[in-house]
Amino acid sequence: MRTICLYFQVHQPFRLKKYRFFNIGNDHYYYDDYLNESVMKKIIEKCYFPANEILFDLIQKYNGKFKVAFSISGVAIKQFELYAPEVLKSFKKLAESGSVEFLAETNAHSLVALKDKQAFCEQVKTHSQKIEKHFNQSPSVFRNTELIYSDEIGVTVSEMGYKAMLTEGAKHVLGWKSPNYLYCNAIKPRLKILLKNFKLSDDIAFRFSSKTWEEWPLTTEKFVGWLNNLDPKEEVVNLFMDYETFGEHQWHETGIFDFLKFLPETVFNNSNFTFSTPSEIAEKLQPVSAIHVPHPISWADEERDLTAWLGNDLQEEAFSKLYSLSGKISKCKDPAILEDWNWLQTSDHFYYMCTKFFSDGDVHEYFNPYESPYEAFINYMNVLSDFEIRLNTAMPETNTDKELAKLRVLVAEKEDLLKKSISEVNKLKLNISKPKTSGTKKASSKVTPGKTKTPGISKTGRKSTKVSRVKKK
């Protein structure tokens, strides 16, 4: 059996709005709704809709022989629900075809696996429930945020009941070994490991439209020729990439959609390769050996490590500050706080703080709302400061926290009372300034020559009872 595993990541974060120091304690909404909606709708139009349509047509054309896998982050699913329920329906249509597998991951697309085992398991469980709800599938294969993996993370994933996991075929881990086999976890051999063939994956994801690349232009015939040149003993080629590769990272004009459309035909006509989902590969193939990964790896940048998110002091400080709140969060029941906690863990917030400006710098600019890593750090820490105030108010532990919580509640009540009072005063001012004409006779402006008319005095000199009265307010 020689097979290709096509896997796509679907994820977009809730980007934060410009949050200044003076917003802390006053503004508890952190997200740039306009930016998030506009980015999502742009990607839907350029990528998700056209790519989903092509995949569905291919599945129908080849009667299920063409297969793919997705992991859609909980953050992306939430944005589909808010901004584009129609694209969620198109993914459900793919799920109903029977040829698309949906994988489990962390609900927040977070780095929590590096920090808190229990919280990691809870996030994975939440995400799996979302997959079951929307796509009627119970995931058996796990894919961690940005393919982050280590032996210990693999153990946790295995203990949660998953039979396979995806990660990067990093050179410094594989050495002389090929990524084109099935492997297993070094501690829990039951967990099968699928390794990304980063060269062939990146030829499509990053180099496809580069006219300076010696292999440009990349055609399906050329690509399948490379597959045929692999050692005949190699069993599986894992092509893992962002779904935004199609139409966004590689624009429609580059021919990327035509490449996707004609790849299966070329594979079926000119090779002995098939297409399989990750769970099928885990069931049909036997691991050739264990893969030892004592230190976490990822699919990011040349180093294939964690430096894209935790490679400088800014990132480390923000990451440590965030998870220093875990203890209180575990006891918190406030749904608004818990939802914000979820979105604030998204790995993109730390990715925007990356200070790599060399070979991988362009990748870090994808949909980055900040002008510099320092701006990203300051903005995030301001938001986190306000979030901590809310958390301490909801979950006071020390006497100081309790006193501060009482004071904040008191201040909030006074502010509400002050706002209501100001509103009432403004209404009164508005009513007083309005002229009252109904039910009132206008005083005659005609004056008899030689006489002076005194308002409110009759001809007899007595006070008139017909003078307009101003209603007391």
Characterize the structure shown.
The protein has 473 residues and is an alpha/beta fold. The chain folds into 2 domains: 3-306, 7-stranded beta/alpha barrel, CATH 3.20.110; 308-400. The protein is 45% helix and 9% strand. It contains 17 helices and 10 strands. It has helices spanning 33-61, 74-83, 85-96, 117-135, 151-159, 171-174, 198-205, 220-228, 256-270, 278-284, 307-310, 313-323, 326-329, 335-344, 348-351, 373-394, 399-433, and strands at residues 3-10, 68-72, 100-102, 141-143, 164-168, 182-185, 192-196, 236-242, 274-275, 290-291. The strands form 2 sheets. Strands 1, 2, 3, 8 and 9 form a 5-stranded parallel beta sheet that branches. It has a 5-stranded mixed beta sheet with strand order 4-5-7-6-10. Helix 8 crosses helix 9. The longest helix is centred in the last third of the chain and has 35 residues, at 399-433.
Offer a few descriptive terms.
473 residues; alpha/beta; 7-stranded beta/alpha barrel; 5-stranded parallel beta sheet; 5-stranded mixed beta sheet; disordered C terminus
First-to-last CA distance: 89 Å
- N-to-C series of helices and strands: EHEHHEHEHEHEEHHEHEHEHHHHHHH
Number of DSSP-assigned strands? 10
Can you give the helix content as a percent range? 40-55%
The number of domains? 2
Any idea what the radius of gyration is? 32 Å
Largest β sheet strand count, sense and barrel closure: 5 strands, parallel
Shape descriptor: globular
In round numbers, the mean pLDDT is 89
Output the structural class: alpha/beta
CATH class category name of the largest domain:
Alpha Beta
Number of helices: 17
What CATH architecture of the largest domain do you see?
Alpha-Beta Barrel
Give start-end ranges of low-pLDDT stretches: 440-473
Fold-level CATH name of the largest domain = 7-stranded beta/alpha barrel
- Strand percentage lies at 5-15%
